[in-house]
Amino acid sequence: MARIPDAVLDDLRARNPVHEVSGRYVALRNKGNRWVGPCPICSGNTASRTAGRFEAAADKWVCAVCCDGGDVIRLIERVEGKSFREAVDTLGGASEPDPEVISRAVQRAEQEERKNLERRNHERARCWDIWSKALPHISGSVVADYLQLRGLDVPDTRVLRSSLEAQYFHPGADGRARLIYQGHAMIAAIQDAAGAFRGLHITWIDLNQINGKALIVDPETGEQLPAKKVRGVKQGNAIRLVSGCENPSRLVLGEGIETVLSAWTVMHRAGCDLSRTAFWSSVDLGNLGGRALETVPHPVETSRNGVSRRMPGPVPDMSVAGIAIPDSVTDIVLLGDGDSDRFLTGTTLRRAAQRFAAPGRTIRLAWARDGYDFNDMLRRDGGRE
Ligand SMILES: [Zn+2]
């Protein structure tokens, strides 16, 4: 089949702004020139007003959980499970391009790229500022108290810090960010393969709450907001919580900090030799498996019109880098929590296992009991009373 000329595709993209097309599947909220909300591919609640995993602009989209993104054609491919040609037809088909429409689209894309670069640089500086101002050790801090409240031992780590007055910003109805909460927080450094600082994972702490996390409420809507935020660049990066040595032979990799520290706590208390074992958090589930080659239908869940919901599948897209595993690692243990969508977690772990496969390397999946995460299990079965 003949290749569709780039100019024709640019025209198709210009006629189908990504945020408008996405908005047919999910409820998005406008934040200036961006729109955020639930993901048309992987979100169960397409009307959620607090979901923020999916972000769209006129020319592109990205989902933190799918670990995926691209233009409007890719969106249709993923959401509808269509081929490239079918997606083009769905969007109105390839027609003679209008030069004016194309030149406007190109200009817009260039402007957007410049703004993105400025935003990324600004964000990195902000993250570094927060990190620099936090207490450099967690021993004796509120963070140590928080971990103990969660039934965890406190590791000797350089990637966790304690902040006394971390600021929580949240956009109001006008799209402008406002300071709505300020307080204690656990600050985790996100590092790239070379160990360079790339971003932050922040957990706001309130030791008076049962799970130790701050109760943060949107003053405009009264909705409870997540007590965690990820800033900077997490894709392909990780939080290296515990490093036994420089060249670990075993890596225990899971989604959340508390999950990974639960595994560490159990092994540490059991007296295991952890001198060559590293424990990393992937920041979120999508980043654990990296980008998928294609989406697959969910076995039971359906979305609009009774059509099967599609989710990132088990085959990795190796053209997009995932978390870099040190060559010294010959044994990987992937932690799967049982408290979120079992199907999504399962395909993600299988994708991670394929992605990280290497000659002479063993990859094992460790599952928490159905309906529980590893931290629940630790607190029920192995935690201090
Ligand atoms: Zn998604």
Task: Write up what this structure looks like.
It is a single chain. The protein is α+β, with helices and mostly antiparallel strands and 385 residues long. Among the domains are: 6-97, DNA Primase, Chain A, CATH 3.90.580; 234-385, Dna Topoisomerase Vi A Subunit, Chain: A, domain 2. Helix content is 30%, strand content 26%. The protein has helices at 6-15, 18-22, 72-80, 84-90, 99-133, 142-149, 257-269, 285-289, 342-356, 374-382, and strands at residues 29-31, 34-37, 54-56, 61-63, 68-70, 160-171, 177-191, 197-204, 216-217, 224-225, 228-232, 239-243, 250-254, 277-281, 295-302, 308-312, 331-336, 362-367. A 5-stranded antiparallel sheet has the order 1-2-3-4-5. It has a 5-stranded mixed sheet with strand order 12-14-13-17-18, sandwiched between helices. A 4-stranded antiparallel sheet has the order 6-7-8-11. The longest helix is centred in the N-terminal third of the chain and has 35 residues, at 99-133. Zinc ion binds next to loops. Residues 39, 41-42, 53-54, 63, 65-66 line the site of zinc ion.
Compile the SSE list and pairings.
Layout: H1 6-15, H2 18-22, E1 29-31, E2 34-37, E3 54-56, E4 61-63, E5 68-70, H3 72-80, H4 84-90, H5 99-133, H6 142-149, E6 160-171, E7 177-191, E8 197-204, E9 216-217, E10 224-225, E11 228-232, E12 239-243, E13 250-254, H7 257-269, E14 277-281, H8 285-289, E15 295-302, E16 308-312, E17 331-336, H9 342-356, E18 362-367, H10 374-382
Parallel strand pairs: 13-14, 13-17, 17-18
Antiparallel strand pairs: 1-2, 2-3, 3-4, 4-5, 6-7, 7-8, 8-11, 9-10, 12-14, 15-16
